[in-house]
Each structure stands twice: as structure tokens, then as C-alpha cells.
Amino acid sequence: MFKIQVVPVGCITFLLLAITVSGLLCPGAHAGEAASLGTIVVTATRSGVPEQEVPSVVDVIGQEEIQATVAADLTDVLKKNTSIDVIQYPGALSGISIRGFRPEFSGITKHSLLLIDGRPAGATNLSTILAGNIERIEVLKGPASSLYGAEAMGGVINVITRRSTGGLNGSIYGEAGSFDTWNGGVRAGGKIFSMLDFDLTASSRNRNSDMEMGNHHGTRPGTTYSIGYGSLRLGSSIAQGWRLDVKGDWYYGNDIETPGALYYFDRQRSRKDIERYGGDARLEGVWGLHKTLVTLYASEESSDYYKRYAYDWNTGDYVKTDPYHSYYSQTTWWGIQTQDTYALMEAHSITLGIDYQDIEQESRSYNQDGSRRAPWQPDNKRENWAGFVETMWRFLDERLIITAGGRYDYFDVETKKTPFKTDFHPGSETFDTFSPRAGIRYNLVSGLSFHSTIGKAFVPPTADQMAGYSERQMGDTTMITRGNPDLDPETSWTWDLGVSLERPESGMSSDITWFVTEVDDKITRVTHGNTTTFANSSEAEIAGLEFKARWDLGKLLGLGRKVELFVDGTRLFHAREKVEGEGWNDIHNVAHWKVNYGIRYDDGLLDGSITARYMGKRKDYDWYSPGYPEIEYPDFNVVDLQAGITVRKHHHLGLKVSNLFDTFYYEKPEFPLEGRAWYLRYTYEF
Fold first, then answer.
1. Which residue segments constitute the domains of the chain, with CATH numbers given?
2. pLDDT, tens digit (0-9, with 9 covering 90-100), for 574-613
């Protein structure tokens, strides 16, 4: 067994040096020619441009990578293909972060934004986004509030769904594997007749036995689930240059077991039901020098929680009870996005747009006997109006590309009257903010280019932090938590500088980018006497180096088959926040090293990959020891294997093995994930 601390550094050094040197020595195309061959991305500008023209760092996870990844949901696809931080629990609950911010897995206020086809995803939990209908994923690293507003401080995840407009095609699959797992699904899409095309997806995932933890740590009780997903899109070219697409998707999770912390073994075991559905109508068209897009979207996510254990204050322990409904939450989103891109003198463009969004949260809590009680947070609402402008300028035969833009956001947050919650007063507050951003990319000959961006981003305060009021009786003292109407949004400035090398004709590409982020006005809790409020009294600093490289040896050597080496990683020099009374502390659940690396092979008949994910050490509080001391949890290296064979073009038999070396690991202390698991899949494509 290898020493995991050494492997990532060695792989990174070898791959980066080999790819860069070989790329510089091999004759290449002009930068403009290389750019014309690149992937079209939309996230960095809200209008489609070649990836090689974007000053921002964008990772594109394509269909081949998605299909080859051993993954149950979007979180698995992301963490195994791009360098991000993750919090992930057994039981369909997870969250991510980009560029050193703490991963967040719930709520509507995060530091990384999730989109579906460029509009807000309408999901607080990444585990409810399955991979069956995804065409590609664009991961924009760095601030994007100038384009998307709130939450886009560390970056943006944009899930691009399928849009099949050609001939009818599709697939059907069945899968069986470890822990009595049975999965299946169907996908179809294409043109029905001249003016109507569609995409249809349906899938089911079922784990009927509890999972085994890695390295012979035994069975983890309470880890079964039943999950389903479906989506439908209808599209039509309604007039010359104009197109209308309407789509919807639905996720359900029934009897999802949640095991609780390993510290309690199964004495916090519970279950939950999750449902999320949403959709949008998208009208886009080209008229003259204009490209116009209007998107109307809505979604709803709800969760029901059922406890199997209750806390006994007499014994100071959890005791088993008949399952009872303990909590219900519901979040709804709806909004509209409008934008128009105008071409200036062919080479330049300006995009103007207006966005509106309305989000409402409701929750209910129940006692063990079924009676209602006050929920822990009041019902609330957040309304947001915004206007933005994004410009792109191309000079020197389109080798020098400059982008500049900004966005103005206005918010109205409100805490609402909440049944059974009598310890607070409803209220509302407003605030506004402006977020600028600029970037430059200079493409030299032979595919060598330099890129840099600078931008401001923000995360808004919650309704409770601004307008909440609650009381809690502690003996003879009334403890008061009061919102602060003068709160400002958390803000950050990020600057990055990188160099890229693209050689499509030899199958290689690489990029290395240095970035630094400074966060001001972080919102913290401040207590004086018996009153707690919120203040913009903290700050954070993050700096690091991102690197990625791909090298297709098959294309370089003319082998007629794909043999690709790849590496994608982040080295954080520091990710720290200033805590009042404690000084500078490392941001929790953030690794200073995170690297994905491996090799992929495909000759049309046989395909396979060996991929690995290394996560360095991270810090957290020990929530199960008196005083909640800070701990550092260990690093790990998890390896996956995928192999398949295609027979007569239509039949594919594949084997996937996750956690090949049966590593005992977790993304959150006390919540280990599954050990070695295998899955055998048959797919018929038409």
C-alpha cells in the first residue's frame, strides 16, 4: 500500500511538467484556432462563448466523465471530478464549497451557488440532484455576484441538462450491486416531428441492506433508502431564430434512513422523506444583432423527519420509541430572468439583464404525542430585484479579451407570523449592494494564454439575523436573541492570475491559477448579558493555487484510441477566519490539499478508468466531547475502478467499484461513508 501523502504531490509534479513541456515542444495551432475548437461555456458570461476566451477558471465535466464516475448523485460527480470541499452524510444530505469556504448543506444562504441551465436550482440539498439527465456540468471558480447575485462568493455550479434536437435516441439500464442495491432507468430524446423535440428521463435507486464501512469497521445500521427521479422537456423552434423549451423534474426519497453520529451507534437513528420538484419555461431567440433570453422558473423542496429515538432527561441518554413525525420543512422558489446580448462591431458584445426572485421558507415541529409545537426558526421570505451588465471586448485579432460588468441587487427580507411560535415578533428589513467584476485574457501563439480576474461578491444576511426576535427561559433569566436591522451583507474581493496551455491537436491542456480572497463584514453572533444579536464583526482570508491538466496519449502518439491522464487539484496556503475573542482560526471542514487524478481508456470496444481522490487533513469541533474542543481529522485517498465492454454498438456491460481499497473515511467526523462496493450494469442504447 502506498503512502497517500506522497502520491498526490508526485502525480501532480509529473503530470504538470510532462504536459507543459510536451505542449511547448510540439508545434501548435494559433490561439484563435485552438479557441474555435473549445467547449462552449455559458456560466462565466451568461452567454455562450468558447472556454478559451473566458478569463475566469471554469472546469467542465463532460458526459464521458459523468458516465465513468461511480456516483449516486451530483455531490459524488463533483467531488470526484473537480477540487472542491464537501460535507456528506449517509442518508441523502450533502453540500459543497469552492475556493476555501466552509461547505454548507442546508438553507438558502450559502457561499457557493447551484444553478440548473443558468437559473437557480431551487434545492438546498445537493443530494436531490441526480445525474441521469445531465449533459455537462460547468464549475466556475471565483466570485460571480456580478452575474448571479447572492451566494456566488466562492463560485458557481451550473448543471446543464440534455437538449436532444436530432434523431430519436436513448438508453435503458439495470444495475445491481453491494448492499442489496438495485437501480434502473430509462432515457429517451430527440425530434418527434419537425417542430417538436423532447427529453425524458426516469430512474430509481434502492439500497435494501445497510452499508458496510471501510477497513472492516462493520455494518452501519440505518443506511437504506429508496429514491426516484423523473424529468421531461418539450422544445420547439417556434419561428425563425426563436425557440421555446419547457421542462420539469421531480425527485422523491422515501424511507431514507439517517443513522446519526457514530458516537451514538444507532441511538439517534431516524428516517426522512424528501420531495423536490421544479421546472422552467425558456424562450430564446436571435434577431438582428440581438440574442434574447427569458426564463421563468419555480420549484419546491419539502422534507418530513421521523424520529425513532427520544432523549430521556432522567437517564441522559436516547431511548427507543415508536417512530413519530418530528419536523416538516418546505422551501419554495419562483423567479424570472431576462437578458439581451447585443453584438458590437462583430467582435464585441454587451449583455443587459433584469432578474427577480422570491423565496419562502416554512417549518413545523411536533411533539412525540403528535401535537404541534413551535419550530426552531420562524417562517420567512426573501425577495430580490436585480439589474446587471456584462461586456466582452476582443482586440488584437481576438487574442486580447477583456470583460467588465456589474450588478445591483435590492433585497427585502421578512420574518412572518408563525403558528405556535410566540417568542418573537415578525418584522422586515431591506438592503442593497453593488457587485463589480473585470477580467482579462491574452492568448499568445501556440495556445499559451494568461488570464486574470478581480471581482466583488456577497452573501446576504438571513431574515432571522436582520428581523428576528426570540426569547428562551433559562431558570430565572430570559435569554433574548434579537435581529440587527443595520446588518450589511458579507462581502469579499477576489483576485486571481493564471496561465493556460491548450493543444487540441495533441490532446493536452493545462492551467495553473493563483487566487486570494479577503472577506469583510462576516456575520457573527454577539452576546452582551442576556441579549444576543448579530454583527458584521469578523473577517476571513483565503489564498491558494488551483491546477489542472489533461494529456491524451492516444491522440499524441496516434494510437487511434483514448488514453488520458488527468489531474485536478487545489493547494490552499491558508483559509482562516478571525473569530471574536479567539483570533485567527482555520476554516472548518476545508482541506489544504485536495486532488483528483487518474487515467481513462476507451477504444470503442473496451473502456475503463482508475481514478483517485485525495483529501488532506481538516479541522472541526468535536461535538461529542465536553467543551467542544477543536480536532483535526485525518486525510484519505479513495480509489475507484470502472471497466466496460460495448457489443454490437448497442449493448454495454460495465463494472464499477467504489473505494477499491476499502478505505475507512468520512467527509464529516462521526459519519463514515461506504467501504468497498461493486456495481454491475447492463445498458442498451438506441
1. 7-685 (2.40.170.20)
2. 999 987 677 899 999 999 999 999 999 999 999 999 999 9
For the chain, state the CA radius of gyration.
25
Q: How far apart are CA 26 and CA 554, in angstroms?
A: 15
Grid cell, residue 337, equals 430572468
Q: pLDDT tens-digit profile of 543-570? A: 999 999 999 999 888 888 999 999 999 9
190: enclosing H helix or E strand: strand 181-193
Which residues fall within 8 angstroms of residue 268, CB to CB, at 6 or more apart?
259, 260, 261, 309, 318
* Contact partners, residue 190, CB within 8 Å, separation at least 6: 164, 165, 166, 167, 168, 169, 170, 197, 198
Closest to 639 in 3D by CA, of 603, 677, 670: 677
CA distances from 75 to 49, 93, 94, 496 (A): 26, 9, 7, 26
Which residue, chain included where needed, has cell 465535466?
Answer: 61
Only one residue has cell 450589511, namely 488
SS3 202: strand
Give the residues of the chain that fall short of pLDDT 50.
1-37
Side chain identity at residue 287, one-letter code: W
∠ at Cα 178 (174, 183), nearest 5°? 25
Nearest partner of 272 among 317, 227, 237, 235, judged by Cα: 227
Q: Give the closest residue to 158 by CA, choosing from 112, 100, 102.
A: 112
∠382-493-409 over CA atoms, to 5°? 30
DSSP 52: G
Query: Which amino acid type is present at position 600?
Result: R
Task: Estimate to the nearest angstrom the gap between the alpha carbon of 116 and the chain centroid.
Answer: 11
Angle at 335 between CA 334 and CA 338, to 5 degrees: 160
Q: For residues 381 and 123, give the distance between their C-alpha atoms in angstroms, rounded to a whole number.
A: 16
